[in-house]
Amino acid sequence: MTTTKTQGAGAATAASATAESTVVPRVVAVHGAPVAGTATGATGAGVTGAGLVPGRALRPRAKVLPEHARSHNRSLVLQTLYRSGELSRADIARETGLTRVTVSDLVAELIAEGLVVELGQRESARPGKPAVLLDINRTAHQIIGVDLSDHDRFRGAVMDLDGAILASAEVPLEGATGDAATAKVRRLVGDLVRLATAPVLGIGVGSPGVVDLAGTILTAPNLGWHGLALQAELQAATGLPVIVANDANAAVLAEHSYGGATGDLMLIRVGHGIGAGLIVAGALVYGSHFAAGEIGQVMVGTDLGLEATYSRDQVLEHWLSVPQLRNGIAEAQASGADVTPALREAGQRLGIALAPVVGALNLSEIVLSGPTDLLDGPLAEATIHTLRSRTMAENHANLALRMTTQGQDIVLRGAAVLVLSGRLGVS
Questions:
Q1: 56-87 pLDDT, tens per residue?
Q2: What is d(CA 361, CA 338) in angstroms, rounded to the nearest whole number?
């Protein structure tokens, strides 16, 4: 176990003091207040008029209960403060459209819960009593994020509410799979809880594989996990709220919240395998079997002919995974050949896989996450060239493809967003 502390010292004796430790709301929407985690969806509160609205159920089957409206308004106030900070009650009312009475009532409740703090009076030359400024209580809680996607280690960090890393720890994987790998996750999480210096708001985990909304890892072949109820196990072990999600979904949340991404977004995570996270109309896309974004196993080779059946040697990972790219570069260098063709071919195969997705969803942005020395340059250039060659130009003229701004900590920071969205309704 390797641990690093970058701020504070001592154990968080109050880490398990979170009262609602057994309640973990589903994370659905990632802008504004989250859509209620119900089978029937939600009717975007505050939205009037006809037409299609992101987040609104097309065929609503239940009325909006008062407690749902209040929860939405709480999240709206917290989201406004989280993004803007240092606002008065009147400022919040103007920005949210809520009445001043509603805002005052909600703020009083949030202050009593320790989630919002008064900063003091605003300096003003205008007559009358100066307004009192408010903000999220950014030091009252900390978040634990865990990244299980590296092929040789599990990484974790204690973060503040803005995603800054305060302390970190890791455990070598050493080829562990199944129960042995699960034990390493529990050990890492236990050490991180002890590193926290404030009550822990929650624990977010980004895991490879297919993960359902209850935090059960349906399958993660590289780790030997099948039907692992990791979220429930970690909640029972720590007494804290836990949210487990696919690592690419966590990564796209980090890019959306901290990377300034706007519009519909697809993040391609390139590592030992290939995965993708999708945000469309402001919400994560999970898929009917929670496998949305599993593009690594899609056949993109037609080398065997159009009638060829499914072959693992013709899937995207065969060209694009980090081990395959490294091997191809090493072989080219050993023979004195240029490495650019291997990188360009990988980019072309990625473009072939993405073109139908971009065409179907009319995405505005593709983000690559992985080793910069492999992805940035010839590979990215070949990808965007292939995309533009295989889609109607006028529909996708503004499509952008870029590297992530979040670096190697993207899954850790995305795990923090899972907690913020699930616990407070902010992102």
A1: 555 666 666 777 788 889 999 999 999 888 89
A2: 36
User: pLDDT for 176-234, tens place per residue?
Assistant: 999 999 999 999 999 999 999 999 999 999 999 999 999 999 999 889 999 999 999 99
For residues 396 and 155, give the distance between their C-alpha atoms in angstroms, rounded to a whole number.
37
Each residue's pLDDT tens digit, 275-290: 999 999 888 899 888 9
* CA distances in angstroms from 201 to 74, 78, 173, 325, listed in the order given: 17, 15, 27, 39
Distance of CA 48 to the CA centre of its chain: 30
Question: Distance between CA atoms of 156 and 188, rounded to whole angstroms?
Answer: 7
Burial bucket for residue 1 (CB in 10 Å: 0-12, 13-18, 19+): exposed
Q: Which of 45-49, 53-57, 157-161 has the highest average model confidence (pLDDT)?
A: 157-161
Rounded distance between C-alpha atoms, residue 348 and residue 406, angstroms: 25
Q: Give me 205's structure tokens.
A: 């985990």
Tokens representing residue 94 in the block: 């103007």
φ, ψ at 374 (rounded to 5°): -95, -40
17: Cβ–Cβ under 8 A, 6 or more apart, which residues? 199
CA atoms of 250 and 79, how far apart (whole Å): 19
List the one residue out of 49, 111, 55 whose CA is nearest residue 78.
Answer: 111
The mean pLDDT of the chain is: 84
Contact 203, 241 (CB under 8 A): yes
Please count the other Cβ atoms lying within 10 Å of the Cβ belonging to residue 376. 14
Rounded Cα distance between 368 and 407, Å, is 10
Q: How far apart are CA 363 and CA 372, in angstroms?
A: 23
Q: How many CB atoms lie within 10 A of CB 288?
A: 6
What are the C-alpha distances in Å from 272 to residues 190, 322, 324, 390? 26, 6, 9, 27
| Assigned token pair, 248 | 């690419």
Query: Which residue type occupies 181?
Result: A
Tokens of 317: 């990972």
